[in-house]
Amino acid sequence: MAGTQTQESGQDGGEVILRHRLSTRLWHALNALTLLVLLMSGLMIFNAHPRLYWGEYGANYDAPWLKVSSARMGTREFGFVQIANSRVETTGVLGLWEDQDGRQQRRAFPYWMTLPSRYSLALARIWHLAFAWVLALGLLGYLLWSLVNGHLRRDIHITRREWHPRTLWQDVKAHARLRFPKGEAARHYSVLQKLAYAGVLFILLPGMIATGLAMSPGTDAWAPFLTQLVGGRQTARSLHFLFAFGLVLFFAVHMAMVVLAGPLKHLRAIVTGRMRLEEEAS
Amino acid sequence: MSRILRPHGGLALSRRGLLRGGVVAAGGLALSGCDDLWRADAAKDVLTRAEDLHRWSQRTLGGEALAREYTRADLSPRFRANGSRGVADAAYRRQLGEGFAGWTLRVEGLVARPLDLSLAALQDLPQRSQITRHDCVEGWSAIGQWQGPQLGGLLRLAGVSEKARYIVFHCADLYHGRPYYESIDLADAFHPQTILAWQMNGAPLEEAHGAPLRLRVERQLGYKHAKFVTRIVAVDSLQGIYGGKGGYWEDVGDYAWYAGI
Q: Does residue B140 sit at the A interface (CB-CB below 8 Å)?
């Protein structure tokens, strides 16, 4: 993010700053693709056993806290998602749906969401576990590089002033009114932005990696603390799923913000790095 | 990022075009292209090769580490059985009826002394009992107590050759019409928790769980734990054994031979 240097007006009046460094742009692109592959192959893996449990063990005879399935009531068959004891019918989308060839399927997630776009646990695992390395090494490299070049300290670090409830509330109100920073203020991430990015960098992505590793029987032998920390392998599997949906939620909000704050401006910034500051309305 | 750049108005449009093209291309690749990419041998090769990385990293970081063991209080109330839950073979049915009194386990291949061991002989060998978590490749887990002789002890008894690299387990069951088999390398074969279990939760193995004998290789996923084991062969290569990939699921379905993750 740009610091505060002398203004230099561009042709259209706004100053052009280097919004995103090359390291951020490269990692962002690689990570977006990696997360898409991991999500889609992960949904296929979930289809192999569409039930989630808490604790160390959990299989068909044990009670799941979440289940995606289908059932029949009289002559009518329906798909549903069940959380604890409440069911939501999801026919057509989850649990019971038609595939691309018009065949009725009783899997949890439809094939248009999964990788590969059919049922193959073996192939989904090959994609998922290979790209897990890309995620882990990419994140490690990016965090180290961002520590060295000052990105974390300058752009992500949340200052004491920003933690102040009044600052937070101001930013919540600004977001709610869809008032996005202009001029000088647009040089920096707002505090909610920082919280979202820090949440992804330091909680969700490391959480995905840690809970993923905790599910590996090989890793559990030499790093049992990972599984024990969360309270069991099935808890790790549940958290893996929840963190993944945390990332999906982040993605949805992230996209909404880009669209509302000027999609072309922000797309250009994440590809070329450059962004033109808008004049402050006075 | 404190440099100030001059705008390049003339380039902006083409960049925008590039950008759109890029987004469409990336989306297309990710959403539908992955299936096509998989059909390209090079991509399949690279992705499948990651299995070596999994094995190498786990072995390097894990060494001889033991899988976690639990107490009786942690046992699954009911342990799910899957894969083959029974064996149709007439000889097996007869042996099951006789409590496996006339059954023997054959140990052969690259060994100095091929063995034929009765169930009683296996029960007389030094035993290891362990309460471990069984993790299925599908995602579920169950905790059970297993008892039997260590595979390493058995291999020493047979005088396994230095040329041996893998231990292959042949099973009595057919799964979807094909003989089930599995294999592990010597690092896992001589791991202290790798046992040939004849007892589960304090009782002789039930048919659904692989009576009379199943492999426990605790740091790997369930499909490696061959059930209904009748013959153990030490080999220097997996080539030429059924599909050559070292196991039933490895041969028929692209499942990884190293199933530690």
A: yes
